[in-house]
Amino acid sequence: MEEKVIKLRQAVEEASPLIHNITNVVVTNFTANGLYAIGASPVMANAREEVGEMASISQGLVLNIGTLNETQVESMYLAGKSANENNVPVVLDPVGAGATTYRTETARNLLNEINVTLIRGNAGEISNLINEKVDMKGVDSKQELTDAVVVAGKAAREFGTFVALTGKTDVVTDGERTYYIKNGSPRLTKVTGTGCLLSSVTSAFLAVGEDDPLEAVASAIAYYGIAAEVAAEKARDFGIGHFQPFFFNELETLDHEEIKQRLSCREEEI
Ligand code: ATP
Ligand code: TZP
Ligand code: MG
Ligand code: MG
Q1: PANTHER family from the entry (predicted)?
Q2: Does 139 contact ligand 1 (Cβ within 6 A)?
Q3: Please, which of 55, 116, 171, 214 could form a disulfide with 82 given CB 3.0 to 4.6 Å?
Q4: What predicted TM-score, i.e. pTM, was given to this entire model?
């Protein structure tokens, strides 16, 4: 697995996939810069007049409902349909699903209409999508799950997608094969947009990992978590404001030895 993470990370740099993000107003700049850090090319495009065309020339489409409104949701449908017609993988980040009915319903409707490759969300978001109520505090999950793999597996089977349920331990599953990833840093929970950027980073890895897309998702999450671990160590004498630039530096130049030594990823068949 270490070699796969390194190989896919290099492939992202070489191919520099164009990732089309229809995302929220909080994380737009953070996401674009994080994608540049790993060597991908970001584009943010929202207008219904252009999203179909933009999705068709991209290698990945990310739909993120963090600050949704009717106009943006209409654009998500248009972009999603175009991505499906052009075999462009779609990642859905159901930000705040469960916090309001509008968010839950919109995420479910998108999943019904669009062929989504991966849903990437926190414990509360994924649980609420499958109607298992977990309290949300706005966009944050109020609890870790003891049965994350059961919830993720159920969501994967119900929606026919891969699911990445992230938190202290990340679970990546297609409903049959599951990866458990324990890399990461609690500091990621203190910077807004780290979940959203992760969704876009998985899209970049999916763009270059067609031979085993589930493994590509797990690799993206492991890479991201290890980058955060190293950044947290380097920034340990500083406050949270310093963690962000250290983290972006590691996303860009993470040492392969760190990947080999720190990777904590286990694969299981259900
Ligand atoms: P939330 O809004 O609940 O924070 P999110 O959408 O930001 O959710 P997270 O689940 O926080 O997404 O995942 C973002 C990244 O942070 C992932 O790489 C995950 O592994 C990491 N992460 C989250 N919580 C922890 C933790 N307690 N320890 C280590 N890493 C964590
Ligand atoms: N409010 C609406 S979207 C958003 C906030 C704070 C960003 C959420 O980012 P993440 O990556 O889910 O923490
Ligand atoms: Mg978070
Ligand atoms: Mg989130």
Answers
A1: HYDROXYMETHYLPYRIMIDINE_PHOSPHOMETHYLPYRIMIDINE KINASE THI20-RELATED, PHOSPHOMETHYLPYRIMIDINE KINASE
A2: yes
A3: 55
A4: 0.97
The one-letter code for the residue type at 30 is: F
- Does the CB atom of residue 189 touch ligand 2 within 6 A? no
Q: How many CA atoms, within 13 angstroms, populate the side-chain half-sphere of residue 191?
A: 24
User: Does 44 show up as a binding residue in the annotation?
Assistant: yes
- Which residues neighbour ligand 4 (ion) by CB within 5 Å? 95, 195
232 C-beta neighbours (distance < 10 Å), count: 18
Residue pair 213/117 in contact (Cβ under 8 Å)? The answer is: yes
Ligand 2 near 95 CB (within 6 A) = yes
Ligand number with the minimum distance to the CA of 145: 1
pLDDT tens column, 50-87: 999 999 999 999 999 999 999 999 999 999 999 999 99
Give the closest ligand to the alpha carbon of residue 141. Answer: 1
**Running DSSP on this structure, what letter comes out for residue 266?**
E
Structural domains present in the chain: 2-269 (3.40.1190.20)
- Per the CB < 8 A criterion, the answer to whether 180 and 169 are in contact is yes
Q: What residue type is assigned to position 166 of the chain? A: T
Q: Are 214 and 172 in contact (CB under 8 A)?
A: yes
- The edge-to-edge listing of strands for the beta sheet with 118-122 is 41-44, 18-22, 60-64, 90-93, 118-122, 162-166, 170-173, 177-181, 265-269
Query: 87-132 pLDDT, tens per residue?
Result: 999 999 999 999 999 999 999 999 999 999 999 999 999 999 998 8
